[in-house]
Write a structure and sequence with these properties.
Pfam families: AAA_15. This protein is an alpha/beta fold. The protein contains 18 helices and 17 strands. Strands 9-12-13-3-14-15 form a six-stranded mixed sheet, with helices on both faces. A four-stranded antiparallel sheet has the order 4-8-7-6. Strands 2-1-5 form a three-stranded antiparallel sheet.
Length: about 475
């Protein structure tokens, strides 16, 4: 999956291709969060952001004959055209994604590109749509393996069917979107940089609902209340922040579930508990505590716990209760409030997640995380002395990373070719960092800052050379 953006915040133009591990580095206010939030927004909303056009005669066949077959190669637009329309529709909604004025993104473009060289139709697709609150099945949608034909069958009798045509059209459109695109777009989970504060005030933070309830109490008449519920204007905060708050507000329900990851690789959860030095517990009364290892009697609230415990809260609950293979975990600044040693351990945990089948995207300022990931890449060798180093240093085999699975980008100024321009211009963009199996990632901004500090300290100690 590749995205291309123009005029997104300070980013004039940039391209980004997702790897199994994607890293975005750069100075403050360089556009990292803008790109990350825009990507998350698309992955979180693409199913609802556009519709596949379904011809009226297909709807007529379903209603009149009880059956219609849709050839996905000839009866709908090409996947490329559908994706282009979806990208354009999403760009128009960026104001809502970022919780700001739509005019701020009036010149922004957001394009998604997929590799369509593979066979779309090699998987089977089958779903039944039932009536809400009833066991009755209304529609059946089936696409056999290695077939481009989707068969829609009406299961309810005409007397019991009162579905509006637009609902039928949406049901078919949603199924086609799943068939064409779901394999390319992983379900995202994001830990935003605001997560530490949200962990403390999780019960107080309920932006839209609290204000909506206040306004509903002042409105007379059911019709007016209904119109208010349908109206927009509650998006004061970016979608990733809303998602974080809603996730933390529902920890009691979430804690009753077990993640796919916890079943196939429980050792990752043990390593996570070692990093935070304890575990999280949610009581039946929805009280959240942190219990340090070796002191079961101690129950610390989030405001009594360390900032590191708070910053890793949503990540811990995601891993233990939500995470599924094939998803995308996005962490904005995983180094938040962590000691350098724990930053290294988080890097190793990220590698284990990738090797377990979960994709990860991080934005980071941490030289410790980048260097530790570099080590994991450089340890991916069958040379005897490197294997000995890995063993002596305590690295596990499932922490080793292949360079080919990693994509690294620097948010910085660079000379780029803008559309319609004959010469390259210096603009804010994402530049691709070089990654090699022998030397890992080349990220110059960290090296420049470290070299500058070393030079000053050498001059202080030796009294020369500065």
């Amino acid at each position: 999956m590749k995205i291309k953006v123009q005029n997104l915040g300070v980013i004039k133009q940039a391209e980004l291709e997702l790897g199994d591990l994607t890293i975005i580095c750069g100075e403050n206010n360089s556009g990292k969060t803008y790109v990350t939030y825009a990507l998350f927004g698309f992955l979180a909303t693409w199913r609802d952001g556009f519709e596949v056009e379904i011809a009226n005669d297909i709807i007529d066949q379903i209603l009149n004959q009880g059956l219609a077959t849709i050839n996905l190669l000839t009866d709908i637009d090409s996947p490329e055209k559908i994706l282009s329309q979806a990208s354009e529709a999403y760009a128009d909604s960026l104001g809502e994604i970022f919780g700001t004025n739509r005019a701020r993104f009036a010149q922004t473009t957001f394009e998604v590109f997929l590799d369509f060289n593979r066979d779309f139709f090699d998987d089977v697709y089958e779903t039944n749509i039932g009536a809400r609150g009833s066991d009755q099945q209304i529609f059946s949608l089936i696409k056999p393996v290695n077939s481009p034909e989707l068969t829609v069958t009406l299961l309810a009798t005409k007397e019991n069917l009162n579905f509006p045509r637009q609902i039928i059209r949406k049901i078919i459109s949603d199924s086609i979107k799943n068939i064409l695109f779901s394999r390319f777009f992983p379900r995202p989970f994001i830990a935003s940089a605001e997560r530490t504060g949200a962990a403390i005030f999780r019960k107080e933070l309920n932006f839209a609902r609290n204000r909506l309830l206040d306004e509903l109490s002042q409105v007379e008449g059911e019709k007016d209340r209904f119109q208010l519920l349908l109206s927009k204007g509650y998006g004061d905060y970016a979608l990733p922040i809303h998602k974080n708050v809603e996730f933390l507000r529902n920890l009691e329900g979430i804690s009753k579930r077990s993640s796919n990851l916890s079943e196939i690789n429980p050792g990752i959860l043990d390593d996570f508990d070692d990093i935070i030095g304890g575990r999280y517990v949610v009581t039946k009364n929805d009280e959240l505590y942190y219990i340090p290892t070796g002191n079961k009697k101690a129950q610390l609230t989030m405001d009594q716990s360390s900032s590191a415990v708070r910053s890793l809260l949503d990540i811990g609950f995601y891993l233990k209760h939500i995470a599924k293979i094939g998803e995308l975990l996005i962490i904005d600044e995983p180094e938040l409030n962590l000691h350098p040693e724990n930053q290294r351990r988080i890097a190793r945990l990220i590698a284990r997640l990738i090797n377990s089948g979960i994709k990860v995207l991080i934005t980071t300022h941490s030289d410790y995380i980048v260097k530790e990931l570099n080590t994991l890449i450089m340890l991916n060798s069958d040379k005897p002395h490197i294997q000995q180093i890995a063993e002596k240093a305590g690295y596990k085999q499932d922490e080793i990373l292949a360079a080919s699975r990693v994509r690294v980008y620097m948010a910085e100024e660079a000379l780029i070719q803008l559309p319609g321009k004959s010469r390259r211009s210096r603009c804010q963009t994402l530049t691709v960092a070089t990654i090699t199996p022998d030397f890992g990632m080349e990220i110059s901004s960290f090296d420049t800052a470290i070299e500058a500090m070393n030079k000053i300290q050498e001059a202080i100690v030796w009294g020369e050379g500065f």
